[in-house]
Design a protein that fits this description.
This protein has helices at about 65-70, 95-100, 140-145, and strands spanning about 5-10, 15-25, 25-30, 45, 55, 75-80, 90-95, 110, 115, 115-120, 120-125, 130-135. It has about 140 residues and is mainly beta. A hairpin with a 2-residue loop joins strand 8 and strand 9 (about 115).
Length: about 140
């Protein structure tokens, strides 16, 4: 079966890659070695709750990055450059949920202290398990304990 997916080949960072038109003015990028995925499938753009866009298969609903990397059920796929439409193998990394969360740029921090924030004249610590700010500490060092 041949899909009607719009496909372009470009030179990106000295490598030939394929661009897939997903609709909604979104384009996914894949390596040429993965172009066979397009022979049986077509993809569309889906916006996630965090605002990022991903490529989802129209036939079975699978995400393009998971089709490329084939992670185990309990594993996730991280985008090294944080571009969720860049599905080149060099940009994808199979990891645990914890590793994926640690790699995100939006982790709370105060200067070089991870999981700390200053509130007026005191500091609060981020409880990653309960996902909330806790405590009221006089110094950032005390908040880390």
């Amino acid at each position: 079966m041949v899909t009607k997916q719009t496909l372009s080949l470009i030179n990106f960072e000295w490598q030939l890659v394929a661009l897939i038109s997903l609709g909604n003015r979104k384009i996914a990028m894949i390596d040429l070695c993965d172009i066979e995925l397009l022979s049986e499938r077509s993809f569309y753009a889906q916006q996630l709750n965090d605002g990022n866009w991903v490529a989802r298969c129209s036939q079975d609903g699978k995400l393009l990055h998971r089709l490329i990397e084939s992670p185990e059920r309990d594993q996730e796929v991280d985008y090294v450059d944080k571009d969720t439409l860049n599905n080149r193998r060099g940009n994808l990394r199979v990891c645990s949920s914890r590793q994926n969360n640690l790699a995100k740029d939006d982790q709370p921090s105060y200067r070089h202290w991870f999981g700390m924030k200053r509130v007026r004249d005191y500091f609060r610590a981020w409880d990653a398990e309960d996902r909330k700010w806790v405590g009221k500490f006089s110094t950032v060092e005390r908040a880390t304990l």
